UniProtKB/TrEMBL annotation:
It comes from the Bacteria. Signal peptide: none annotated. The chain holds residues 335 to 624 of 644 of the full protein. This is EAL domain-containing protein. Residues 24-276 form the EAL domain.
Length: 290
């Protein structure tokens, strides 16, 4: 199952390492070339409903991959910030939207496709117009597209962010709150902004099984989501134990290596789980399933 090896495990950079100015400059140049030379790819990771006995695919998330001819696979956690700092996030983001919508429109199954949006790109002001154009060009139904936004995107100018978000929602496109629980978070945000989904960050999901405080907060978030009518998706699920725990807590959606690694899927088949059987695998070791 070589193709199931996680592409991110062969990343040559550590997101924690701050790149030097010269390195960033070089990377920005290389990224510009990458856009022109077709070195970028989108991988897709399935998003599941967690209901019993077997979960079903609810959609998938597009994750950007860059294979540099010399450096190998570079993580988006490294090159997206570089693109943001060098005025490249506009063209990069546009490429992602066009690719993701064209891919999704070609799938046999009408799955939803979720696309990550950089805060810089979100605040640009041109986004609603671009999205409208891309949907027309690709023929993708707007309700099949969901943007993944972080709180960082809206925190600096909430009024303007809300305007942009409303324009996007008027097009029929969904908006998810990504990285939730990874840092700053306010109830105000959830109340004011019409999010369609909350994505609980992996770091937070990992803590739920280990300390009571995290579990208590998790329950509060689920209750909040339920009363606001916003589904909560738990990210980074790697084991059946984690999945069972989330199910017991009535968390309805999940994503993670347990169901499938990000994979290329521009063919007509659309997103597939690598191990759908996992959903009713009971107490078996996840390693035997992956
Ligand atoms: P994210 O949107 O929170 O994406 C989830 C990340 O967790 C992805 O990393 C995914 O490969 C990884 N992941 C998924 N399941 C598991 C799991 O079970 N275990 C572990 N350890 N990891 C898991 P990736 O692809 O490296 O992306 C990192 C971040 O880069 C994303 O976080 C997103 O914020 C950003 N990003 C990715 N693609 C794009 C893009 O097209 N545009 C923009 N602006 N940002 C992107
Ligand atoms: Mg995301
Ligand atoms: Mg996320």
């Amino acid at each position: 199952h070589a193709k199931h090896t996680s592409p991110e495990s062969i990343c040559f950079y550590d997101a924690e390492i701050a790149l030097e100015v010269r390195e960033r400059r070089q990377m920005a140049d290389a990224l510009k070339t990458a856009l022109e030379e077709n070195e970028l790819e989108l991988y897709y990771q399935v998003q599941m409903t967690l209901e019993k006995p077997s979960g079903t695919i609810n959609g998938c998330e597009a994750l950007l991959r860059w294979t540099h001819p010399r450096l190998g696979v570079v993580s988006p956690a490294v090159f997206v910030p570089v693109a943001e700092q060098n005025g490249l996030i506009g063209p990069l983001g546009e490429w992602v939207f066009r690719r993701a919508c064209a891919d999704a429109a070609a799938w046999d199954t009408p799955h939803r496709v979720a696309v990550n949006v950089s805060p810089v790109q979100f605040m640009d002001g041109n986004l609603p117009r671009l999205l409208h154009e891309v949907l027309l060009d690709t023929g993708l139904a707007p309700e099949r597209l969901e943007l993944e936004l972080t709180e960082a995107a809206i925190i600096h100018n909430p009024t303007r962010s809300l305007q942009i978000m409303r324009q996007i929602k008027l097009l029929g496109i969904g908006v998810a709150l990504d990285h939730f629980g990874s840092g700053f978070f306010s109830l105000e945000t959830l109340q004011t902004f019409p999010f369609d989904r909350i994505k609980l960050d992996k770091a937070f999901v990992d803590r739920i099984g280990h300390d009571r405080q995290s579990k208590a907060i998790f329950r509060a978030v689920l209750t909040l989501g339920e009363s606001l009518g916003i589904p909560v998706l738990a990210e980074g699920i790697e084991t059946t134990d984690q999945m069972e725990l989330l199910r017991r807590e009535n968390c309805t959606e999940g994503q993670g290596y347990l169901f499938g690694h990000p994979l290329p899927c521009s063919d007509a088949e659309g997103p597939q789980t690598q191990n759908l059987k996992v959903a009713h695998a009971g107490g078996r070791e996840p390693s035997s399933l992956l």
